Amino acid sequence: MSNYAKVENALTGSPGSSIKLRGWIHRKFHVGKKIFIWLRDSTGYIQCVLEEEKVGKEAFDSFERARRESSVEVEGVLKEDSRAPGGKELEVVSGRVVGYSEDFPIKGGEGVEFLLDNRHLWLRSTQLNAVMKIKHTIIKLLRDYYINDGWYETTPPILTSSAVEGGATLFKVDYFGEPVFLSQSAQFYLEVLIFSLEKVFSITPSFRAERSRTRRHLSEYYHFEVEAAWMDMEELMKVTERSIEYVVQGVLEERQRELEILKRNVESLRKVKAPFPRITYTEAIEILQRNGVSISWGEDYGADEEAILTRSFELPFFVTFFPRSIKPFYMKLSESDERVVKGFDLLAPEGYGEIIGGSQREDNYDILLSRIQEQGYDPKDYYWYLDLRRFGSVPHSGYGLGIERITMWVAGLEHIRDAIPFPRFRDRTKP
Length: 431
Ligand code: 4AD
Ligand code: MG
Fold this sequence. Notes:
- By secondary structure, the chain is of the alpha+beta class.
- It folds into 2 domains: 7-99, CATH 2.40.50.140; 117-419, BirA Bifunctional Protein, domain 2.
- Helix content is 32%, strand content 27%.
- It has helices at residues 7-10, 52-55, 57-65, 112-117, 119-122, 126-148, 187-197, 233-254, 256-261, 266-270, 281-290, 303-310, 365-374, 383-387, 403-411; strands at 18-31, 34-41, 44-51, 71-80, 88-99, 152-153, 159-160, 172-175, 178-182, 199-207, 220-229, 278-280, 317-323, 340-348, 353-360, 396-402.
- The strands form 3 sheets. The protein has an 8-stranded mixed sheet with strand order 6-10-11-16-15-14-13-12, with helices on both faces.
- The two termini are 31 Å apart.
- The mean pLDDT is 96.
- The structure holds 4-amino-1,4-dioxobutan-2-aminium adenosine-5'-monophosphate and magnesium ion (MG).
- 4-amino-1,4-dioxobutan-2-aminium adenosine-5'-monophosphate binds at residues 164-165, 184-185, 187, 208, 210, 217-218, 221, 223, 225, 354-358, 398-402, 404-405.
């Protein structure tokens, strides 16, 4: 089973060499008495030619019957052919159909809902293949960066008993008759773990009951979250920008081909080098007002306003020090101005907007207790979170990065649904 090559290696192999390949028929056409197929595997496409005299009647007939997306094995000789995609062609000497395909429902030009219903088949497309590879590389590079910098990967739970990001977007689950929630963020558990491991991160699904379908919201997404003891907001922002530079530059290096397939403008990605620009929330409001947005200090803003802000920057940029009333209770109040918190968002350029939300955490027991009450929560639900401030509290900070958000930006996607194999949003839980 193992002496099969991959298409990408075949395309760089020397002419005349014998090679075995397996994959799926992406396209098939007849020219005279020859059958041409474009064989697809996980790595790419190669043209294969079959002639009855070479492969025998039985094999030839079976390939004749095989429709698009049938799975096949072929053995043949590599030929230079400038007309073939990739410049190489496999002259088949033997082959067999492994699994016949019925008439494949995706033929091109179908609408979004049809493609979502057939997501299990659409995932074979060149575009989604490229996005999934880019996402894989982003996750790998995030892990690389943080592990090499001394952070521990940890595994927090998904079923939780308390809200991190407020009650409005919680999914409730029946847990042996008791109500629990699907996690919105691993943050509070990571805050527990820093008292043992100091610098931690996790990659988990997070859930948000988002009411509306937008181009950047999922109800289930993958969340990369970091948390570090002995780290203030300023220091964490430096780690953040260095790691984002590392990821983007790494994708440019390792996923050139996929970025090309997606027609991503890589010039804007090349510019992604730390340090990133920083503006305060107050400055962001001023920029918005200058651009004709009617918004005043103290109000929250969303995707449309963020898109306007991104016009002023070529790089990802930080927005910092938000009003305390629009941010969660756990964010530390600024020492110099108690109306604002030591929180930051990282916004991606080119209209993409928020990809990261982070902050320094409130580490004082009394202030945290009053902030929990101020926002109308029951301190009893947060006894264990409050305990962390009773037993050797330390200054600490952390952030959450939406993995589909960064994938969407780096891959240059129109819509977040294409950054995840099986998107979940309102009215969509299949396949
Ligand atoms: O800004 P958020 O809500 O922050 C938190 O959850 C913090 N507790 C994280 C932390 O400090 N550990 O979410 C963090 C990021 C956002 O910046 C965004 O990238 C992503 O999670 N995100 C979503 N991605 C897709 N669909 C959604 N509905 C998302 N909501 C948030
Ligand atoms: Mg946020």
